[in-house]
Amino acid sequence: MKFLVNLIQVAIVVAIIFPIFHIWDVDKVEQLCRNTKAGMSKTAFIGLAHNSGAKITGPTDDSLQGGKWTAIASSHSPFAKEFCEIKGTSTTVAYADLVEY
Question: Which residues, in sequence order, are CB contacts of 84 under 8 Å at separation 6+?
Answer without folding.
Answer: 29, 30, 32, 33, 36, 54, 72, 73, 74, 96, 97, 98, 99
